[in-house]
Specification:
The chain is an all-alpha fold. It has one domain. It contains 16 helices and 2 strands. The chain has helices at residues 3-6, 9-35, 39-64, 73-90, 100-121, 124-149, 174-193, 201-222, 225-241, 248-273, 277-282, 287-293, 300-313, 333-366, 371-383, 394-423; strands spanning 165-166, 168-169. Helix 6 crosses helix 7 and helix 7 (174-193) packs antiparallel against helix 15 (371-383). The protein is globular, with a radius of gyration of 21 Å. The model is unreliable at 287-298 and 416-424 (pLDDT under 50).
């Protein structure tokens, strides 16, 4: 074992970005619960560390002249974040829910700059070690969550409740718990369905089983509907994209049966635990009730309508950092982008979002060994259409950068592969 290589700056950068950046926030919150301290005492050092390492990765790559993505999506990112920064300073002081400094730190310190760090530092060698660090971080987050919340009583509300207040909220809420679980299920699905992930079938299915089991348990504890959708859509899309010839249709049918079977097993055990997940999923069949009186008492359709009206108030430069009528984010990134940054910033975000989705699908079809990146991104791409805000969901931004970078270096390698096959 090359100890020097393990602790080299390049490998440590991958460890912080992939192991810490993608699941470190969840672990930091859990550490706050364990130590019974305000969450900021644990999350601030984590966020500062990711930011510092990201800046280091950017400066190091540029100074050494390393090859990294230099395409036009940089323009879309720059335009969107420029308009978002403008919207922070355009918002009247009396309408701000936090200080301008806090909004700026979230937007640029947590999202924009680390996204550039991921985009620049994601290459073939970093991705190989990054995958190990990512799954290590995911396992620690899942195991700690079960250790702290696994014995939660689900009777009454049918969901694991949050913890205590110590200055600010220190515990993991049910929604965050559910999405941590759904991300583990999606990552486990990669090992279950991608033969190229590992040569050993036994090891592959063991890893898949562990991650799916932990993730499903957390989803049952949180009993949120969005994470179920965020698992189903990427996995279904993954299986459809893998069909290239007639014989693949059989695999599609088998995989679909397995996916549906896993869903029924999850619902069965969730019901046995006393989770409200089954009941909450059944409510989706009542369309009017779900959208007009669901969520936090105000339906999503009403939130979307109010956000659109707010956008029309200033469609050029945007009109507010949050939906003022409901004092919350619109719970849809595309709508929020247009509402906050106007038609130019919103269109830049839409171009970025749609291109990342397109490239994630192409990675699944042509570069299956890297499809864990696509599954992870698509999971959060679905998530951001139903929950959270643009500057609150750094997972979406980091995973989107990974998709862009992976597609860039993988697509350059593909012509070489084809040429070798032709020569043979």
């Amino acid at each position: 074992m090359n100890v020097r290589k393990i602790f080299s700056m390049k490998n440590l950068t991958a460890a912080v970005l992939y192991g810490g950046g993608l699941f470190g926030m969840h672990v930091a919150l859990l550490i706050a619960v364990i130590l019974y301290i305000p969450s900021r005492a644990a999350t601030m050092p984590f966020r500062a560390g990711v930011l510092i390492v990201s800046i280091w990765a950017i400066v190091f790559a540029i100074s050494k002249g390393f090859a990294f993505y230099k395409g036009k999506l940089w323009i879309a990112l720059a335009v969107f974040w420029a308009f978002y920064g403008l919207s922070i300073f355009m918002e009247p002081m009396f309408m701000l829910q936090q200080s301008r400094m806090n909004y700026s730190l979230y937007a640029f310190g947590i999202c924009a700059i680390p996204t550039c760090g991921f985009l620049i530092s994601t290459n073939r060698s970093n991705l190989q070690s990054g995958l190990i660090w990512l799954f290590a971080g995911a396992f620690v987050a899942g195991a700690l969550s079960i250790a702290l919340y696994g014995n939660a009583s689900l009777h009454g509300s049918g969901r694991a409740k949050g913890g205590d207040f110590i200055g600010d909220f220190v515990a993991i809420g049910p929604l965050l718990l559910s999405y941590a679980g759904s991300s583990l299920v999606v990552l486990g699905s990669y090992w279950a369905f991608v033969r190229e992930s590992l040569p050993s079938v036994m090891i592959r299915y063991t890893i898949a089983g562990v991650f799916v089991a932990i993730g499903a348990y957390l989803m049952a504890l949180g009993a949120s509907r969005g994470p179920v959708i965020a698992v189903f859509i990427p996995c279904a899309l993954f299986m459809v994209c893998r069909v290239k010839k007639a014989s693949d249709i059989i695999m599609l049918i088998v995989s679909s049966v397995i996916l549906v079977g896993m869903g029924f097993v999850l619902l069965f055990f969730a019901d046995m635990m006393g989770s409200a997940l089954v009941m909450r999923l059944k409510s989706l069949m009542h369309i009017q009730e779900t959208y007009m009186s669901g969520g936090v008492g105000i339906g999503r359709i009403i939130v979307y309508q109010e956000a659109f009206k707010q956008f029309l108030g200033n469609p050029i430069l945007g009109n507010g950092l949050y939906c003022r009528a409901v004092l919350s984010y619109p719970h849809n990134f595309i709508l929020e982008a247009y509402m906050t940054t106007g038609v130019f910033g919103g269109t830049a975000f839409l171009i970025y979002f749609s291109t990342c989705v397109s490239r994630a699908i192409k990675i699944i079809r042509h570069f299956p060994v890297y499809s864990w990146v696509s599954l992870f991104f698509l999971h959060y791409a679905v998530y951001c259409q139903f929950s959270s805000g643009i500057i609150m969901n750094h997972y979406f931004w980091y995973s989107s950068a990974m998709v862009i970078a992976v597609y860039e270096f993988a697509s350059k390698e593909r012509p070489l592969i084809r040429r070798r096959q032709y020569v043979r």
